[in-house]
Design brief:
This protein has 85 residues and is mainly alpha-helical. The protein contains two helices and two strands; from the N terminus they run ββαα. A two-stranded antiparallel ribbon has the order 1-2. It is globular. It starts with 35 loop residues before the first strand and ends in a 12-residue tail after the last helix.
């Protein structure tokens, strides 16, 4: 299993579902349950930059300063989902 979701960068250990689900119902070892369900991305039209903005906003809702959100999300474009986009 990856240490971080390869779509949003969230630590996989923070995922309450312990990973998303593949089309066959098995657990995804690469993507969290917030990003990947039933073999599809939950936000299929997002760009890496839109994913960064979305994650920063979610972290702000949880009480984190915007700069911390930016620090945690700055590597999103380097994750597997976004490498060849």
């Amino acid at each position: 299993m990856e240490k971080f979701c390869q779509s949003c960068g969230m630590p996989m250990k923070k995922d309450p579902e312990s990973g998303g689900t593949n089309a066959d119902g098995s657990k995804s070892l690469k993507f969290c349950s917030y990003c990947y369900q039933s073999g599809q991305f939950t936000q299929p039209d997002f760009t890496a930059q839109e994913m960064q903005a979305f994650c920063i906003e979610k972290m702000k809702e949880m009480g984190m300063p915007k700069i911390i959100g930016w620090l945690f999300t700055r590597n999103i474009p380097k994750l597997e989902r976004w490498k060849n986009v």
